[in-house]
Amino acid sequence: MAAQQSQGIQTLLEAEKEAAKIVQEARQYRVQRLKDARAEAAKEIEQYKQAKEEEFRAFESSHAGTTSSAQSAIDKETEENLQRITNSYEQAKDAVVKKLLDRVMQVQPELHRNLKKLNA
């Protein structure tokens, strides 16, 4: 009976070692799956990031022409306005200077109104 108990204990020890081995393999498998999942997630994130960057570049390039054409239209309009203002200045400057000189030269000396009231 002692041999049978010893053999039963030996079988239990072997079963325990086998179970520990299975648990260890399961842990290693789980760790490996986590590493694989992280690597796969990082790869997907990088792909998504690249796709969004390409989408942004396409959007930017499609609207860059609009911006440059709008800028050129604004520059043209500004140049036209400056030319119009310059022409207006050139046409009116002599008349304005003449009016200013006429007003300055038309001095009519008279007593101040408060001084007239004191004398009256």
From TrEMBL:
Residue segments, region Disordered: 56-77
GO cellular component, one term: vacuolar proton-transporting V-type ATPase, V1 domain
Any one GO MF annotation of this record: proton-transporting ATPase activity, rotational mechanism
Keywords: Hydrogen ion transport, Ion transport, Transport
Tagged with keyword Ion transport: yes
Residue ranges with Polar residues bias: 63-72
One matching Pfam family: V-ATPase_G
Role according to the record: Subunit of the V1 complex of vacuolar(H+)-ATPase (V-ATPase), a multisubunit enzyme composed of a peripheral complex (V1) that hydrolyzes ATP and a membrane integral complex (V0) that translocates protons. V-ATPase is responsible for acidifying and maintaining the pH of intracellular compartments and in some cell types, is targeted to the plasma membrane, where it is responsible for acidifying the extracellular environment.
Complex formation: V-ATPase is a heteromultimeric enzyme made up of two complexes: the ATP-hydrolytic V1 complex and the proton translocation V0 complex.
Family designation: Belongs to the V-ATPase G subunit family.
PANTHER family found in the cross-reference section: V-TYPE PROTON ATPASE SUBUNIT G (PTHR12713:SF11), VACUOLAR ATP SYNTHASE SUBUNIT G (PTHR12713)
Protein name stated in the entry: V-type proton ATPase subunit G
Source organism: Lyophyllum shimeji
Lineage: Eukaryota, Fungi, Dikarya, Basidiomycota, Agaricomycotina
